Amino acid sequence: MEQTNTTPAQQQDTYPGRPLPPDQFSPKSVLLQLFKLKDVAKRNWKVLIGSLIICGLIGYAYDYFNENKPLYTSSILFNLGGGSSGGSFGGGDLGALASAFGMGGGASDANIFSGDNFLVYAQSRPVVEKTLMHLDTIYGKPVLLANYYIENSGIRDKQWEDSDTLRAFRFTQAKKPSEYTKLEQLVMSQIYARIGTEISVSQPERKSSFMQIYCGMEDEQLTAHFLTTHLKTIEEDYRQKETKKTREMYDLTKKRADSLLSVMTGTENKLARYMDQNQQMVVAQGRITETKLTRNSTFLSTLYYQTLQQLDAIRLSLIREAPLFTVIEPVAFPLTRTGVTPLGLRLGIALGVVLGIIIIFLRETYRSIMREE
Length: 373
Prior knowledge:
Radius of gyration: 41 Å
Distance between the termini: 57 Å
Order of helices and strands: HHEHHHEEHHHHEEHHHEEH
Strand content: 5-15%
Number of domains: 3
Largest sheet: 5 strands, antiparallel
């Protein structure tokens, strides 16, 4: 059997009485260190608790004086069903009417309400401003939604804290964007910027036609009324844009019907007067004039009643083209209340632990130095 030769230095290194190298440790040394930490904790637990209490109170005071209101969140799930589009005058009643006015077919335009376009449109500034300019009834009192937002959204006490002009500002009445003053433009711009972080429009399932409007604001009534009013605004604006061409055709046909009625009435009155004045007429020339007036009256009557039929057809087309918004899940009270995390208190406790450990470390270091001396 081969014997392993060891040098005297190696034998000294493996001798049980010598200390272990710095890169190694034993269970005994670990237990000794734990007992030391236990003694340190017994001597300094009051320091750690005191540090936690002081820093915790400072964090609590910060949360108290910088209180953030909780958010009230809700959403509306709805289905957007479009009507049969007549914008391209593709066929049916609208196709016939378009031909009557010389407005032939053509390629259909891209629809701004399809797919992701609708998601962007529903959060656009013009639509949000129309919502804010609605007069709504909250707590039994009529109030402009923009003014209620200023008073209850938190924008006045946070973003406008240093501006007395903005804090005192209120809209006097509902206005169009073209009628805004410079101050109203500034106010509406800041309100829209804040609302952009509070609402979202999404499609829960890509394969479905369901849409969802989500909103989270600091006032429960504000959240609920903004959601319902915003959906109504989208529906109204959608209907106006989607049926624009058909409504223009309706207005043109209505003017045509009014014009035919005026001409027809004048012709009939002229025929009646002529017949009253020439009841015993036997001259052929007079009979020809009466025949012409009768023919004109009959022709105008036919055109007038055809135009009335066209008006009825366009009205039906407007109904077919109007989008159908079906609310699947409306706003339900009470709204979900999302509490604000007391960040100051948490940071205070964490800082108290760190500060306490630092104080204990310095205290124990000083004690060790004094003991060695």
